[in-house]
Design goal:
By secondary structure, the protein is mainly α. The protein has 15 helices and two strands.
Length: 280
């Protein structure tokens, strides 16, 4: 059974779990992808069209506010004015409209202007978190391209940031931005070999193992995480899935039940029950 069939049922199963982890800090994704043909006849998301499409959802008053903000930069201290505008636009799209794509885009634009490690990595991880639960290749490409740019800028500020190295590698693994997505594995392995307790690196390697069909290796990575962080539901859920894909029904059921015990969401529990019964 494919991952989407197991954990993206009923509007995004894994996304529900991630929202349970992080609360309302990540606005829900609502915008439909806006595609444009590349010279290779592959579809990618055009940011300008995406923003235009997002504006079609606004009331006349809301559109007037956005237009006013976009045109508010005057001569003088343009950089700080633009930074303030980007932050206001991000807040509007995230807090008022709750539309992920324009929120993330303007947050990224503000981070690039500020150019601090903290702002760049925050925005980069926002894109990456959503990338891990995105099923559509055009949106995968858009999310990964934005995250990659932010991680690279963060590494220019601090080349020793292992989290940014791992995040950059993850963009290649999940992002539909390379003919060889596994090229992102190497730098992550270097970080984990140096520090096996880097659980973010273990998680990404585990997810990469699932993506490449190396389920035993994925299971090994996820077990490292859940043994150190039993409360880590993302790792626990993916551990269950790795066993499921491997065909180890007993262990899949065992870990799906562990996930179910820790999730208070009735819809998620229902989907887990369906999968557990199918495996028994």
């Amino acid at each position: 059974m494919k991952k989407q069939q197991i954990i993206l049922v009923s509007g995004g199963f894994l996304l529900l779990i991630l929202l349970f982890f992080f609360g309302n800090t990540i606005p829900p994704k609502k915008a439909a992808p806006i595609a444009a043909n590349t010279p290779h006849q592959e579809k990618t998301v055009d940011t300008e069209k995406l923003l235009t499409h997002a504006k079609e959802r606004l009331t006349p008053q809301q559109l007037e506010k956005v237009t006013s903000l976009e045109n508010s930069v005057k001569r003088g201290d343009v950089k700080n004015q633009q930074l303030s505008v980007y932050r206001q636009l991000a807040s509007f799209w995230g807090d008022t409209i709750k539309l992920f794509e324009p929120y993330a885009f303007y947050l990224a634009q503000a981070a690039k202007l500020e150019n601090s490690e903290k702002s760049l990595t925050f925005a980069a991880h926002l894109f990456l978190t959503n990338l891990k639960t995105e099923a559509e290749p055009p949106m995968q490409n858009w999310l990964a391209t934005n995250a990659k740019d932010l991680f690279q800028r963060a590494l220019e500020v601090n080349p020793a940031n292992d989290s940014s190295k791992i995040g950059l590698g993850a963009c290649y693994i999940f992002g539909n931005i390379s003919d060889n997505p596994m090229e992102g594995i190497g730098p992550i392995r270097e970080v984990v070999q140096k520090n096996p307790d880097n659980l973010f690196g273990q998680l990404i390697l585990g997810l990469g193992g699932i993506k490449s069909g190396q389920y035993d290796k994925a299971i090994e990575r996820f077990l490292i995480i859940v043994n150190k962080q039993p409360e880590n539901l993302e790792a626990t859920l993916n551990l269950a899935e790795a066993y499921d894909r491997k065909g180890d029904k007993a262990n899949a059921v065992k870990w799906y039940k562990v996930v179910k015990e820790k999730i208070p969401n009735p819809e998620a529990q229902k989907e887990l029950d369906i999968r557990i019964k199918a495996l028994q």
